[in-house]
Amino acid sequence: AKAPVLGGLGAGMSPAVVGLAFLVCVLGALAFMAFLAWRGSKPSNFFAEAVAETYQLELADKEINAYYDLKDRLMGQYAPEVAARSEEEEPADGEEPWTRKVPLEERQALQKALMQRLVACIAKLDQVQKDKPGNWKLWQSKLVSERFYSSLLEAERIVSQEIDACVNEAQEIEPAWREHIFPQAVQLYRMQKTQEHDKKLQKKAVENEKKQKEKEVKRAEASKRAEEEEKVRQEKAAEKMMQKLLMEEERSSKAKGKAKTSAPAAAKPKAKKK
């Protein structure tokens, strides 16, 4: 009897079913490839834990509050009518700045406080602008989230607004100062950075000198300790040698004593007969 002939896998299946099965296979393969691509672009759990969700930056609250505290005190003392105005109320045309009523020494103190506030803000802006390029590359590579990079841009915007506010305050104190306060603050910030760098170098030099002195002291102590140990070793060796010589001398004396006692007495010569 002839063995039955098995038909092909698609035998008895309509072309529509075959096409549908092929389409399902293709879509499944594409979905799997998309999943692999998404998984490869997703940061690892370790990296996600190491990177904060948002960019961390604190404004110079200490300098900002110090400036406004001094300003409010001086305004209330020398220009109470200006202090009583609402924020929406504009000064009259031709009205001189209220700071002209403030004595020169106290006005200079207010200018100094504003300068310290602006320098502190420039330091914050410098920090953001240094962090921005590296984080942009990480964001492009999907190693930091959209939320993190957006918070960095937001921090840059807030610091820039704070700097603009300082420039406006300078105009309120002295209108001509508006054009000069920012470059002056940048110069002062750079001077402070240079001074901080020099202090770090000096501190490092002092620490290195201190370490060198400590090494020299330890080296001298080790040399002295080695000399003392060598002296003790030589003294012990000399003492040991002396004991050895004494023992040899003692053995030699005992040996001589034994030899005398064991030797026979010599015979006396006989007298000759006459």
Q: Which SSEs are present, and which pair or pack?
A:
Layout: H1 15-41, H2 45-50, H3 61-78, H4 80-83, H5 104-140, H6 146-173, H7 181-262
Helix pairs in contact: 3-5, 5-6, 5-7
Short recap of the structure:
With 274 residues, the protein is mainly α. Helices cover 74% and strands 0% of the residues.
Overall 3D form: flat
Largest beta sheet, briefly? Answer: none
Number of helices: 7
Gyration radius, rounded: 49 Å
Assign a percent range to the helix content.
Answer: over 70%
How far is it from the N-terminal to the C-terminal residue, by CA? 166 Å
Residue stretches low in confidence (pLDDT < 50, at least 5 long) are: 1-10
* SS class: mainly alpha
Number of strands: 0
Average of pLDDT: 83
Q: In what range is the share of β-strand residues?
A: under 5%
Helix-strand topology string: HHHHHHH
Can you walk through the features of this model?
- With 274 residues, the protein is mainly alpha-helical.
- The chain has 7 helices and no strands.
- The protein has helices at residues 15-41, 45-50, 61-78, 80-83, 104-140, 146-173, 181-262.
- α3 runs antiparallel to α5 (104-140) and α5 (104-140) packs antiparallel against α6 (146-173).
- The model is unreliable at 1-10 (pLDDT under 50).
Throw out a few tags for this protein.
single chain, 0% strand, mainly alpha
